[in-house]
Amino acid sequence: MSGNDSGTGKLRLTGRFNHFWSTYCGPVARFYGRVHQRLYVRSGGTRFATLEGSPVFRLTVVGRKSGEPKPVMLMLARDGDDVLVCGSNGGNPGKPNWWKNLVAAGKAEVQVGRDSWPVDVRVVADEAEYERHWRTLVAAYPNFATYAVLSERHFPIAVLSRATA
Q1: Which of 39, 62, 91, 149 could form a disulfide with 19 if both were Cys (CB 3.0 to 4.6 A apart)?
Q2: In 3D, which of 139, 112, 135, 151 has the Cα closest to residue 18?
Q3: Contacts of 52 (CB under 8 A, 6+ apart)
Q4: Other CB atoms closer than 10 Å to residue 10's CB: what's the count?
């Protein structure tokens, strides 16, 4: 799949709005993300667990430059026991910083509701696996498809699996 093949052919109004918001109002969007994350944590993951009706989760990864934990709220898409993440960045040209940190660290921590666990990271390279996970991501959060149409970039996907050790 190319970075701009949505798999659905429809552009969602909310996806267009989110793309615009993150492109032209980045500092405000990041502030909202930090507030959302803090409220989610303060409630123990029982409140603020959705965005636009879709479930979200908290990903915490060590910053590649700072060495400090960097939490971010992301859309929740599961593949069995694994969590899938997409470095869409709302369709913006560059990959999000959390993605760069995730790839550099190779591990992270996931919080879904009240449960937290460490995860190992595997970036999806196989095209058939990518296609399957892309369909899962779009089913979980349809705006991913809109972001893909609005971007010339191929969105990376990673599988977060419970750490074994």
Answers
A1: 91
A2: 151
A3: 14, 143
A4: 11
Per-residue pLDDT of the chain (165 residues; tens, 9 = 90+): 334 344 445 677 666 666 666 666 667 677 777 887 888 888 888 888 887 788 999 999 999 999 999 999 999 999 999 999 999 998 888 899 999 999 999 999 999 999 999 999 999 999 999 999 999 999 999 999 988 998 889 999 999 999 986
- Retrieve residue 163's tokens: 């750490």
Handedness of CA 5, 110, 53, 28 (dihedral sign): negative
Residue type, 130: Y
**Cβ of 12: how many Cβ atoms within 10 Å?**
19
Q: pTM for the full model?
A: 0.84
